[in-house]
């Protein structure tokens, strides 16, 4: 019973309907009808226009419109154009088809119109089950939590993920694992999200290497999508900690790719936290089938052939000190109190790609 602490906790269930299973995208018109929707606006990234067309074709006899300019980090100029289209066509619901970028745009529109949303995710990022929105204006990304952006319905259809390239699947999956890892030592951790976190890590850790070997495997893809749902639910339910702060700083300051940065940093941050969160470490290790959490995460990242160092993704070495300073500003609640020297040393190891080290506290 050491890992569960049912003595005192808060648990917030989020109101969202989840439909999981191959081919279930065909139920989109019925789900829309149940939400009282007859004029949907479908949003996607330019690359996924074909998929959006396919979803639109399911709405035989009713009018649908597609806005295909969604972009990473939900830029305000894209949202304002989409808002004009939504008003012009008198959309009465929003359907996001794609990864976090498409889903982020639908959330931004829902925030300003109150329209209901259906999300059909095609990556493992998890945004579809969170009440979180991050928007970028004048080069600054602001994130906030509000139930107004939580999609009313999510349809997980594994067939929509089969085209996700193996490399993107690996980094997106590690990004999802990061949500679950931090949920296990979150200041809001509770027995329910901890069960989901452990299951989510285990499902993705088993599925991702199989996807790399056989990207068309329905079975591996289904397990990965199931894991992504669990990990996304953790992100939506409890506060994140140092790892998310570090990735936010590195991505925002040096324009590093979001999922790659998560993939590189995760084992290093977990090693950093090790002494302060022993129960979480045991659960992460158990989910990975590893002796300890950080070597298990590093071994998984190596098996998935994701970038192994910040140098590889072109973070400037002279930026390490600045990054350490920024990480210490407006810190997130964290099991270990971070300090400049130890954060700098951790970033140095991550920059070089040397083994993560559990620092003595
Ligand atoms: P993404 O949505 O930007 O997709 C990455 C690329 O992959 C795009 O070019 C997209 O068209 C393509 N793609 C997506 N699915 C595909 C598929 N099945 N087959 C082929 N190509 C496909 O990437 P992402 O990692 O899903 O989302 C990242 C964004 O989501 C960031 O802006 C991040 O901040 C945000 N995010 C938000 C939350 C939240 O809770 N608010 C959570 C996670 C991520």
Automatic annotation (TrEMBL):
The keyword Cell membrane does not apply. Residues 15-157 form the Alcohol dehydrogenase iron-type/glycerol dehydrogenase GldA domain. Keywords: NAD, Oxidoreductase. Residues 170-351 form the Fe-containing alcohol dehydrogenase-like C-terminal domain. It comes from the Bacteria. SUPFAM superfamilies: Dehydroquinate synthase-like. One of its GO terms (molecular function) is metal ion binding. The keyword Oxidoreductase applies. Belongs to the iron-containing alcohol dehydrogenase family. This is Iron-containing alcohol dehydrogenase. It comes from Caballeronia fortuita.
């Amino acid at each position: 019973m050491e890992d569960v602490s049912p003595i005192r906790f808060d648990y917030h269930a989020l109101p969202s309907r989840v439909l999981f299973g191959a081919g279930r995208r065909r139920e989109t018109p019925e789900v829309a009808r149940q939400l009282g929707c007859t004029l949907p606006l479908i949003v996607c990234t330019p690359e996924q226009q074909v998929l959006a067309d396919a979803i639109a074709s399911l709405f035989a006899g009713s009018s649908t419109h597609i806005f295909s300019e969604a972009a990473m980090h939900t830029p305000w100029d894209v949202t304002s154009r989409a808002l004009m289209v939504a008003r012009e066509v008198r959309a009465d619901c929003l359907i996001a088809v794609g990864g976090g970028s498409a889903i982020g745009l639908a959330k931004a529109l829902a925030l300003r119109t109150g329209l209901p949303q259906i999300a059909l995710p095609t990556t493992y990022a998890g945004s579809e089950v969170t009440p979180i929105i991050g928007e970028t204006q004048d080069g600054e990304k602001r994130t906030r939590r509000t139930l107004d952006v939580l999609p009313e319905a999510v349809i997980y259809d594994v067939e929509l993920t089969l085209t996700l390239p193996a490399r993107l699947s690996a980094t997106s999956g590690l990004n999802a694992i990061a949500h679950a890892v931090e949920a296990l030592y979150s200041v809001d951790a509770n027995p329910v999200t901890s069960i989901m976190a452990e299951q989510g890590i285990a499902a993705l850790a088993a599925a991702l290497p199989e996807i790399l070997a056989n990207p068309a495997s329905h079975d591996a893809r289904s397990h990965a999508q199931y894991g992504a749902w669990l990990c996304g639910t953790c992100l939506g339910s409890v506060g994140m900690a140092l790892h998310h702060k570090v990735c936010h700083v590195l991505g925002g300051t040096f324009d590093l790719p979001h999922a790659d940065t998560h993939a590189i940093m995760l084992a290093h941050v977990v090693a950093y936290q090790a002494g302060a969160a022993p129960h979480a470490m045991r659960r992460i290790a158990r989910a990975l089938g590893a002796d300890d959490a950080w070597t298990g995460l590093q071994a998984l990242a190596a098996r998935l052939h994701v970038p192994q160092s910040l140098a590889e993704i072109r973070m400037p070495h002279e930026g390490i000190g600045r990054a350490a300073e920024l990480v210490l500003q407006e810190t997130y609640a964290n099991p270990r109190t971070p300090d400049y020297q130890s954060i700098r040393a951790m970033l140095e190891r991550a920059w070089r790609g040397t083994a993560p080290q559990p620092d003595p506290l």
